[in-house]
Fold these 4 entries.
Entry 1:
Amino acid sequence: METAPDGIAPAPSVALPPSLAPVKRHDERTVGAAAPARGYRDLAQGVAATSVAAVALTVALLAWRRHKRRRLAATPSPVSIAARFAEPVLPQGPAHGPAPAPPPGPEPLVPPEDPAMANPPAADWTYQRTAFEAPSVQLTLEPVDLLPRQRAAPLPRGLLERLHSPGETATLYLSGTRDHPTLRHVGLHRDDFAHWENVLREYLDAGGEEGHLARWLLPMLLCQRAPYVGRREAAAHIEEAIMLCDIALDDAGAGDGERPWWRAQQLRMQLARIARLSGATRLLALRDLGSDADDHDAPALDAWVDVHLAWSGWLMSVAARARLDIADDVCARLAVHDEPHAARRRAEVMMRRAALAKGEPRLALLDHAHSLRDAALAGGEDPATLLLFARCSHERATLLPPGDAAEACAFALAHAFAAGEHPAWRIESLELRLAIQLTHDALPGQAATGDVATLLRRELADARALFRTRTA
Amino acid sequence: MTRAKPPSLLSTRYGLCAPTPGDLPATRSLQLYGEWAEGETDLLSGLITDGHHIVEVGGDFAAHTLWLARAVGETGVVHVVEPRRLPFQQLCANVALNQLGNVHAHHAWFGPGSGMRDLDGEAVRTATLDSLALPALHLLKVNLGNALVDALESAKATIDSYRPLVYSRLSGVDTAEAEVQALKSRGYRVWSHTPALYNPENHAGASRNVFPGILACNVVAAHTESGVDFDHLAEL
């Protein structure tokens, strides 16, 4: 086997990294002077080999660096926002010592903006309440929280919070002011009242706002429950409601601001009792209520409008119109205190007058009621007022020529729709919208498919299906 | 000699009544139920208001007069005409018991002309309603049988002037058509009103029905120009 001669270093045939390049060993034997030509040739070969090795090394180094850059680009480092939520680390040192100076950071790369190019200063915004805002007593007391977590300690529950307990069917609603809200029932079952009645009775002797609210609401609740119970039980409920009002009225001093409110409440409870009497007895009981001339405050005058409107509903013809004249007079007195509300009540009186008339006089009365819309809604667009004018416009539509009737229907629909945004008025709104839609579809020249009416019927049935069924 | 204890007064729905012997439906109803023909007053309660002037023909022991007197208030007036002597006295007793200052009782028969008329063996004075010279008349209520046509005849001028509502009990099958026609001939529209004599919600709270299935056959009439319309009743 032939071996390489001594003193000849093998030329690298491949480029090697510098760590692997051959190095000259000190103990290698060198060639002697006895052979100079061979020495020169060996020297040239060595220089060439060294050059090739250097070029190969450079190429290998460049290739390695390029490969490394590609790997970095292919697998970027993961982006994390954890640092943004990290709690600031307090310095370990004396609790009240000066804060350590921040470490010197790099100079900002972006030059400061020209002040002339900066955004204009923000306007000084002030929050103002609007008519579209839900009254505070209708607000959900606690935001919906779908994340299960345990509270450290349960918060004490207030009256309103307990009335609106989760799991109870929503059939009772409060609206109006926080001190003197109005209760509205939209269900069909006597048990709708049980939870509220229990809670209100618990707070009946409490002090403060919650006690006052319970005493204010319980008479209304008892009266509204009366139609769903037997005759004797209903009479007992209403008598208790009247008694609660009498007590509250006695407790309120002569100059007490609560007194007119309780007087109004007392009148309404007595009206509820009278409404259950037979016609002849009812007439005498109405007369025993006294006269509106003895009351001068807005809440009581408002209740007197209720009395006269109800009374007129039990009368016929001339007698009914005479009673509505009296209601109009009370509205005029009410306007001194609250003009928008008086306009709304006058519209109610006008609509009752229209119900007693026929043909052109009826339309004229409805037009008069309709003209009070702007004045009535100046005080706020509450659902009851919106529905009143929706109903007025709907009745006008039945008397107007087709073109005007379609416009009146559109007006009525818009108002009924807006009223239905409040859950307490949703079903009444849907019923009215369905009636308006049917009137509109029956107008000459309307290519009605009945689709909208069908949808409204379905929506109404769905809404009603949420209630308890009526008891026997 | 021992004297029988006098029967106590009846406490009825609209006031006190002297006990009345007899088996008339009105007296039985007052005794058992504390009211009489409440369905009639129920309908009329929608028509009567303060200050009205009312004429009632036939007192019915003031069963409805007590209510009418209160319904028209202090500014209204009720005239009651009772041709029979004893019922007239019982009427006056009940009016006095209840101190009804706005009730005027008349012992007479309302009919055309003047003079005397035989009624069940008693001579009764005949007078016209026009002779009362009423300043107004809002309701003519006829409770007596066979009295409607004569009453209308006796009130020509008053009816022409005031066109009151008329509420009347019909006298029977034989005369009902003539009575309705008498109203229509004076420009009236006539509706049938048939309330049950037994009221389940009676004043005494009595559940026993001594008038099972018995209805009163009445009419209510309004002049065509009055604008009154009883939509819920059958027009005759």
Entry 2:
Amino acid sequence: MSSALLEVRNLRVEFPTRRGTLRAVDDISFSIAPGEVLGVVGESGAGKSLTGAAIIGLLEPPGRIAAGEILLEGRRIDNLPYEELRKIRGRQIGAIFQDPLTSLNPLYRVGDQIIETIRTHLPLSEAQARKRAIDLLQEVGISSAAERVDHYPHQFSGGMRQRVVIALALCAEPRLIVADEPTTALDVSIQAQIITLIKRLCREHKTAVMLVTHDMGVIAETADRVAVMYAGRIAEIGPVRDVVQNAKHPYTQGLMGAIPSIGGAEERLAQIEGSMPRLTAIPPGCAFNPRCPKAFDRCRVDRPEPIPVGTTQVACWLYEDARAKEAVHG
Amino acid sequence: MIAYVLRRLIQSMLVMLTVAFVAFSLFSFVGDPVANMAGEDASQRDRDQLRRDLGLADPFPLRFVRFVGGVLQGEFGFSYRNLQPVARLIVDRLPATVELAVSATALALLVGVPMGVYCGLNRSSALAQAIQAVSLVGISLPTFVTGILLILTFSVGLGWLPPFGRGDTVRIGWWQTGLLSVSGIKSLLLPSVTLAMFQMALVMRLVRSEMMEVLRKDFIKFARARGLTSRAVNFGHALRNTLVPVITITGLQFGSAVAFAIVTETVFQWPGLGLLFVQAVAYVDIPVMATYLVLISFFFVVINLVVDLLYYAIDPRLRDGGPGGTGKGR
């Protein structure tokens, strides 16, 4: 674990409000290895985007990191002054946001936005940076890049703009990219292209990705590992294959059951009853217990911490016994 | 583009013709210039003779056509009061008003924009709150009150600045400037501050609210996520996106500064167009009043054209209807 590129330890994100403090991300820990793609999945409001924002140091006030640490290559970055963190953003941690239509400044040529970013982080001349910008645009699959570099964002389609955004995120060769719902705002036909592109580029540049999405299909296709978040906590985290094919947490099982399959029997799509609790009304014990089909007494009282079960970690009391047995037999 | 400018020019002609008509017809009812000119002891025959000489005996349409015909040839008629060509009076007075309006607008922008940016960035700081409060005073205090208070403080109380007049002027070609002498600049200070006060407050409040709106946009968040410096984000990316409304208001305000310098010029006995107009009203000097109003409408028309052209310079989305162009959405 010491070789981790990014390590998040007991992170807690809070929003002080007039009616008390809301805990949007509650005591989560995970790590990302160099070059690894970690998918973070969950419903809206589960805290996945906030976790991403906390890592790049762009939580919007009054949101703040209330506890925990974030380490990048062993160096703590969550308590750095703004200017120090600014130098890390873009250079070591890149970001891709949800809506490519609004991510680019409409008044500047895309080339100028890329060149500005490159020259902020790398000691290149204007001409060198421009050359690099054209190469990058080419690399993200924009044809006649030498010409397109002087175009304005409104002259690109949504999918093309997201490619520009990806070029911008990659332009200073960061080690990690936080991609927050990078395909949600795109046409379904474009989504696959963009995901493939992100996957290919990150493999080639050996960039790790934290891919935040609510699309389990995207995760299954792209990620090496996946973290399932629910009400500000990680319910289950492990290799994507194990989580998808052999989900342990009842919530994950529910999520998997809710994915329609082509060629499957024509039955009603399974759904999880109820909805995620609001931050103001998270039940005691396991936050999922009111919706959980397998909940028992302990779930309503004690909050489960993640425990290793096989290759995954699961925050569920169902596996407490299994682990105890394992300990005895092992 | 050329077609656009031409179309705008034709529209402008119509606007000015309408203004001239309204002005001319109104002034036919404000009083009888002959009564003023002939004096008390003139006989009825003298009066009728004068009326015929001035062309006032002719029917209204004929007088209007004669006026417009003269204007088209650059002949604005003779002032009834000083019996000089109106064109010469205007040329004599124009520099004073233009210098006052330009310095007031420049002052409003130089002070208003930075204050607006500061208040937009540091919304809750004590200084920002204080500026907000003071700007409310600036926006609600009538110009003549501001002017009189300034005279009371800096001329009567402290004796630093002259309370009226334009100081020494230097003639450059036909342009009589007060900017090249110490006393001219000292005289300019109080009137331009008076005239600038309202505009300054308006610009500051506008920039502030536009900044606050733009800073919430995704592309600002993305610019931060790329690690651009605060300076580049705030001034390069945010401020430029606030410019379209700011330019609109500044343009209109410059027009108003020229047109409504009347009050300020009266308070400070500033020998500009406004003072000329006030004197003309008192004397029912129809040619001067009509010419003044046509000139002011000409200013507004030109300013609006310049403002529209500036939009094109600032916002690339207006320049062409490229793919994905969403018009003028801000």
Entry 3:
Amino acid sequence: MTQEPKAAVFDDPDRQSQSTNRALNRVKKLFRMRETGLVLIILALFIAMSFASPYFLTWVNMRAMAMAFAVEGIVVVGMTILLISGGIDLSVGSVTALAMVIAGLLFLSGVDPWTASALAILACAAIGAIMGFFVTVVGLHHFIVSLAVMVIARGACLLGTGGRPLGLYTLPPEFKFIGQGSIGVIPVVIIIFLVVVAASDFMLRRTTIFRKVFYTGSNEKAAAYSGIRTKHVVFFTTTLCSALCGVAGIIYMARFGSAQPTFGIGMELNVIAAAVIGGASLSGGTGTILGAILGVILLSVVSSSLALLDVSVYWQDIIRGSILLSAVTIDHYLNKRRR
Amino acid sequence: MSKDLILEISNLSKAFGPIQALRDVRFDLRKGEIHAIAGENGAGKSTLMNIIDGILRPDSGEIRFDGKPVEIASPAIAQRLGIGFVHQEIALCPDISVAENIFMATTNISRAPLMNYARLAQKAGDVLARLGDIDPTALVQSLSISQQQLVEIAKALTLDCRVLILDEPTAALTEKEAQILFDIMRKLVKQGISIIYISHRMVEIFDHCDRVSVFRDGQYIATHNVAETTPTEIVHAMVGRVIDKLYPEKQGEDEKTGRVILSVRNLTEQRRFSDVSFDLKQGEILGIGGLIGAGRSEIVKGICKLEGQVTGEVVLNGRSLATSDYQQSIQEGLVYLSEDRKGDGLFLEMSIAENISALSLRQVSSPIGILNDGLETGLAERLGAMLNLKCGHVGEPVSNLSGGNQQKVAIAKLLSVNPKVIFLDEPTRGVDVGAKSEIHRILRDLVRKGVGIVMISSELPELIGVCDRVLVVREGRISGELAGQDMTEENIMYLASVLDRQLEAVE
């Protein structure tokens, strides 16, 4: 155990070679990164599909795929941050639907759609805060709390609407523009998505608040022993995830022109799968926004490909599940080898 | 090879990544002997034991059990061979009964489809009757630490073992309980069972063992018949150098200022400790000794407001503190180094730099909370150089480092906030000998710079070698204070374990 040190950084006289080494290391690191692997898989799928179906590489199909993952991607961002902090949220689908229902009902009762949307997002944040309370103050597990809230929020959706979609035909066009419009050729939905992704990626990597999220998820006790108020951190990530579900719900509402109480059933699985494929760990401490987004894109490209290839919808879930299982298995072995 | 050997190990090596934990080690165990294993932390004792128990696989080497070469690939195989291991850390299921815990392994290999709880309790009662007064139907979580230790031993005894490994079994026991344990050990040996006994306590080795093998830095050093050697010789073999150079110089007469940095008055926590009062003076390293579970860590965590509902007064540099959580304690300048480095001291998969800045992100970020890589790396490199941290780059994960360097990262983390008082809980546990004395020297340097240091250690030579004054804690109270010539292993152990009425005789 008295090994000679491999190299002491501090007395390396050859700065030049050190910086080349560092650059080389960076390239090596890039190749070892999960994100690189995901990009390669997605590219391979693109190439294969462009041969398999002439329709795949068309602008219309690309746009449809992007629209499909963009809104869900916002929820994935929230989920990834929550997973990094060591939590999990099963209620994302129900809460997204609830945001639509609340905003829809408020709008139908005469509130202007912008205020209604803001209130709905606030309500979702409040739901997250309540979950955060049960987790941090009462001391229950995220899984159980969010399972209960998932059922409750769905029940509230059905109760509020009588189980039928709310047609919101009188939504003003400037509101629908969020979900349906384009700036130039790029849909507004995609722009919102890119802004959320860029902002959250920057914050996650560079801000002290989100660094504390990593500390807490990596080792909650060590974080507490570093003076970090870990309960505040978990409360924050839980609330943030639900609030982002609210944002997604509003965009869906603007896109559909209606509020659908049964929307998003099973969404939590897709969202968690995307985050995990992208490198988030259920035990907390790891995960990146870029990885999670690539996870979402991969799942979405697969679904779209299967649809184009006329594979039965029933097969799709089986294939999606298998992708998740293989992704985490490969990752598990890579991690083991690295250690 | 001889017929009276039950276990024979030769040329055994094991590495963890770059760290060679065992190098070409040999060891043999006779039938019906108590064989002590001595060595400093990090000498490779636990690695060797874990290999014998099948928890770890060796990289190379041969193990012969009862004359036949064996491959102990799992604890289950070790069990089948008849090897029982009582770990130092208690590994019981707290929510189930004592009897069920004792027969966990038996239940595991049993083919009966149904549990017979009545018989289980009765059989457990029989085993426990030999060890002490423990109710087999009680839940483990309701037992004291020493009772739990006895349950662990009972668990191993029920396994029909031929080799029993005891890893510091007396660390948490009172003297009376330890005596009972030694009686049992002697009975077992008469039945032909061989015992491997790991202990830091020379007295125990010389009173109760037949032979002793010494390990140092992952290497086998020597085996002696206890009757033919002396504690001095063993200690010498363990540390491999003249012992008085192992520790840095103590506080000089001219360094005694008498200025009190921290004073603690009547600190009480309902269940864990009561009425703790002491002063920490500038220029001294204050040690806290006592048995595991006596409340040492709890007192220190209480001062830092890390744990528990604490009443009493903490005065830092003449000002009474009104802190309510650890974050505020850090801002006041009180920091705590955890005893469980891997469990709650470090973020293992995060980088060295990210670990070091965890206490003070404000120092490495802009006023609006944007992290600055340059500042973060700079802080880590500055503190790393100061502590002589050996690493490739501060961006690499802490899990790549050796125990000693990991501990330096943990200490650098505390130093990043320029603390006034540092509380260290077992600062050299699992650290190799070289890094250990380096850490001791760092502590002495810090004290000379005016930082207050309070150090908890279970290792008596360390406590005596490093500290200028030692407080001994027993059952949540300070049972005595020792300084200068009075700081001896005997005095500390006495204060740590004697009964109240005997204490008066000491004073």
Entry 4:
Amino acid sequence: MESNRSFFVQLQVLTKRMVLRVVRRPLAELPNLIISAFFLFVYDGALGGVFGGTASGTPFDFANGNFINFILPVSIVSASLSGAASGIYLVEDIESGVFKRYQSMPISRWAIILAPMNVGALRVLLQAGLILLIGKFIGADPEVGNVGFLIVLSLAFIWGMGFAGYSVAAGVKSGSSQGAQAATFLFFPAIFLAPTFVPREQLKGWLETAAAYNPTTYVIEGMRSVMVQGWELDILFRGYLAATSFAVITLTLAVISARKATEKA
Amino acid sequence: MLAVDVKNIKKTFVTKQETVEAVKDVSFQVEQGEIFGLLGPNGAGKSTTILMLTTLLSITKGEASILGLDIVTKDKEVREKIGVALQDTGIDNLLTGKELFFTTCRLWGYSKKDSEKRTMELLELVGLTEAADRRVKTYSGGMKRRLDLGLSLVHSPDILFLDEPTTGLDPGSRRVLWEEIKRLRDNGVTIILTTQYLEEADELADRLAIIDEGLVVAEGTSDELKASIGGDVITFSFENDSDLKNAKNVLNDAIEDKDQLRITVENGAAKIPSFINDLNKNGIIVSSVSASKPTLDDVFLEVTGYRLEGSAGSDSSNELEVK
């Protein structure tokens, strides 16, 4: 019989298997998507009246007349946290013994580790994409045109991969799906110690300092730059730099912990 | 060439709190085409031994080879030759049996077309064709074990490692799996299985090793092991604990087993009267006595000093009871 054991075939087969798992547990996908959409509607409903069109000409006119454009990045960042599911997928395989089965076969260990991250990436793209569609439907209109949506999506993707790496590292280190799940608690400091509702200049005291050290700040500001301000390349660059740095650090941690997990005891 | 050659392997786990010698010194050889059983209680070191031989765990000391391939230096080649169904190798419950076989075939390098063909062959082989499109979470315990067995056969391995393949199964499902294991052996597959069931070891294993506390304490065919303890097993029961203790002083070679004494002698039935006489002379009242041919259970008791949990006790088929 013909034999093809290339890395890419293995990765594709393992990714497909994991996609099937995700598709067969649709309810597990809903909470994060609903929370992200909820943020969009609630924040727009609660604050859109104050900071939207009626703020024109006042000191609160930071949304340039369209609060959806301003708040949409917060929901997108929230949606990109769905990448953290990668760690949960991987640890579920470790806990169930499926991981051990694959280890007993001549399969690339990197294919075993990368498959859940692939699915995490797909999840981020899907959830962030859906939130963008909802945003577009309720009035989001990037200042730089529709290409702004793609920029926001790309930033969300990189940021989500950072969370995927973090959850894989945390999950493998703890050896339990609860450990991987705990990674999502980062959500709160990540999203609320940032210029979530107003620009950074309007934050005060310790929150302003915390936001300056929070990489989420730069990702949100990068997204907002194309949504609200136009082509502000330095802000956009800082957004990509923050997201990429976070992703590189956490993916390195994921690789180190995964390598330890696949070594023989 | 030997299928499996294990020489003095040892496994020590070192943690911050303690050092555990899970396998102290295990050696055995397995010929091609035989079923070799590793019999022992939980924690004896059976599964650790299997994990080392299947290249999933490093060896602390000693050496082992599979079909002449060193398991440390040739681990990748070894994995090509072996099939593995371990106690804790999992099955993806969200996929169907067919999807699992297809995925595993693809991972072993079969093309899509060949994977489809092999999937149907294996579903047929393990009797799961009708359940092929059902998700595994709906399978019974026995079906899952058969699926697990089938998954370990995807690449037609020369050697199959089965770690407690029937644990938790009802007697009917256990019988079905035994027949499949025997059929594989008859088709030339070498099988190394661990079990804590005496009946399973007796029924399946062409040869077996008894492992206790990380050591091989006996090895041979079931008949050889039974013959090694010699003659018949005489079992005495007493009215009270005091008689049991006193009897132990009279019958020096006897082994205490719960509230009974057991002694192995040649021509047991003929010697019962003289034993009872000796005990009576010492004021000990025997409530019942029986003689039977040794069973694996007796062999286990003889070499380890205790019984396997849940074992049936002596084989009543050859029992002669005297009241």
